[in-house]
Amino acid sequence: MIDYMFYHNMGKENIRRMYDGSLNRDDLFAMVQANRSDLPSIDQLETTNACNLKCVMCPRGKANRMTRPVQSMDQGLFRNVIDQIAKVENAKSARGIGMRDFKENPPPSLVWPGSEYDVCALRLHHFGSPMLDPAILERVNYIKTSTQLPIQFSETIINLKLQQVRELFRMGLDRLIIALDGTNAEEFEASRGVRVANFDAMIQRVRDIIEAKLQLGDRTKLDVQIIQMKHTPRESFIREWESAEGVDVHVKPFFPYPDIPHELVTDSDTVFQRDCRLPFTSLTIMADGRVVPCNSDYNGEHVFGDLNHQSLQEVWNSPEVIEFCRRFIFDLFQSDSLCNRCGFYPHYKGGDQST
User: Fold this and answer.
1) Distance between CA atoms of residues 172 and 218, nearest Å
2) 159 in helix, strand or coil?
3) DSSP for 274-320?
4) How many CB atoms lie within 10 A of CB 294?
5) Global confidence as pTM
6) Which of 167, 71, 85 is nearest to 126 (CA)?
7) Which of 23, 129, 229, 319 has CA atoms 20 to 30 A from the CA of 160?
8) pLDDT digits (tens, 9 = 90+) for 52-82
9) Which residues lie closer than 8 Å to 230 by C-beta, 6 or more apart?
10) Would you say residue 291 has pLDDT above 80?
């Protein structure tokens, strides 16, 4: 979930002016600070950073750049974090600015940064495969029985087991994205970096999951996904799945993570937008409880705080977050910083250069 109130308060015209160079940076910083919510929003909650793939679009995949230890989140910490997120969302609802208020009656000035499911659901992943978390079913059950938080995650088909998915459907998982990324074993390997011995059996598992969704998962939105890159068979993938009942085809734009040679996986700037607004709208929580700016920070380069010792509210309103936003807007990062290595950062080169 991200702070969609920020987009509403800023308005379409000011969101556009953030990137076209027409705003003085001092004015832009003041505007952003005035419109940032006082309540934190969490985009991604990483329950584990374990992964068994070598994805070409991921800095921890074939590039093998992740150096932090592989671990799953402590269950006590997880419950504490979920309770805090739920409390924040309840407070937003009491003000009439909760996720349901915006989903049911979005203001005309609201600028959706992505799909409804991107902005209105807590994503239980970051740089790990959720189903490799041995406690994932217990965690989903805790969220769905203790809170009203909508939750989703993306997982590759090789890690999805039918019985576990059935349990997720029964619990009421709001969205499950099956990362399939191809129509045959060679195409899957080209994206995900692992060879599938029996691709037909994997496709049958997808169809079995769809059948289980039709039987049990009325509350769960189910997608099969392909990431749009220059080697992916977008059109044939859509043709193969668009007529399947109970599942939608999701074409995900390539996201330009840091430390990935983008020219190897995409030859077009049109597959993603460069206008990053994440520092103003949300936080991401890693499996060890540390809080980072966004879904690009795979190693914890910019740590805002630690939820083992701080609250979400303390972290969101900390000097570290405010200073990061200032450096973000005034382009004060060092050349080798995370943001300058990420293709999603627009660098804010336009406009007045006053500091």
Assistant:
1) 8
2) helix
3) ----HHHH-EEE-TTSEEESSTT-SS-SS--EETTTS-HHHHHTSHH
4) 22
5) 0.93
6) 71
7) 229
8) 999 988 998 877 899 999 999 999 999 999 9
9) 265, 266, 267, 268
10) yes
